[in-house]
Amino acid sequence: MRAIHLLLIAVTCLCAATLSLAASEPSKPITVRVASYNVEFGKSATPEQIGEIFKPYKLDIIGFDEAPDGDWTNRVGKVLGMQYSFVGKVSSANHKNKYKTILSRTRLEDPEEHVLTGRGWNPASAVRAVTKIKGVTVAFYSLHICKSGAKDGHAYSLATKVLPKESIERVIIVGDYNNHIGDAAMKTIEAAGYRPTWNDLKIDLSREFTYNAQDTNNRLGVIDHILYNRPSGAYAKEGGIIELEKPLSDHKPVWAEIVFPRKITK
């Protein structure tokens, strides 16, 4: 009889703990691990080699720039166990194999591509898709744009024509911006409500570069960035520039772990 009594107590405690955990889960923030890589049309590495460098980061979603079309992105996904992808139709500056693509661990919905206009080389674009990570919906963009000023380039087109129409509450934008943080073009995007992960990570970008990884005499500083929308209440917990012993592109890949609250305070 005493054994039955103790068993009932144990079951009651277990049920109470389970209910408590379930009650706290909706308030627990989620983390999204993302990366961005301009792979220079895959001329220096196979997609399988690209996949291998990302294995240690356990990523949820990746944006590629200057990527070949066809099954290139899917082949990276096979290495990483990421089965969902979207490949854009606009090749940067109409060059061969300079597409923007998205690779995701979770299903992608509503994929689309936005053509961006402005001075410099054209066309430019950003691909977008929506996915649900740990029960939370996130809009993800991967872009490749030209260097510009505050109101004359692709950054202005993105900030004033595309992003104001975004309806998803949590947004991440990654890619090759061809502008430095602090440039007028980047300030235009930040003024639209977006924050670079570099700001949270306290990395001194003046000492770093993401281009040119294969020709350090021609380095142009950090021009590859990951941004999230400030109204979401997110922040970057980890991240940085991925340094490779042997560069696989003229750009270095960048990554970040972004924390989003489950409930957004208006």
Description:
The chain is of the alpha+beta class and 266 residues long. It has six helices and twelve strands. The strands form two sheets. A six-stranded mixed beta sheet has the order 3-4-2-1-12-11. α2 (47-54) runs parallel beside α3 and α4 runs parallel beside α5 (184-191).
Shape: globular
The biggest beta sheet is recorded as: 6 strands, mixed
**Strand order, biggest sheet?**
3-4-2-1-12-11
The percent range for strand residues is: 25-35%
How much is the radius of gyration in Å?
21 Å
Low-confidence stretches: 3-24
Helix/strand/pairing category = alpha+beta
Q: What is the distance, rounded to the nearest whole angstrom, between the alpha carbons of the first and last residues?
A: 55 Å
Mean pLDDT: 92
The helix-strand sequence is HEHEHEEEEEHEHEHEEE
Number of strands: 12
Number of helices: 6
Helix % is 10-25%
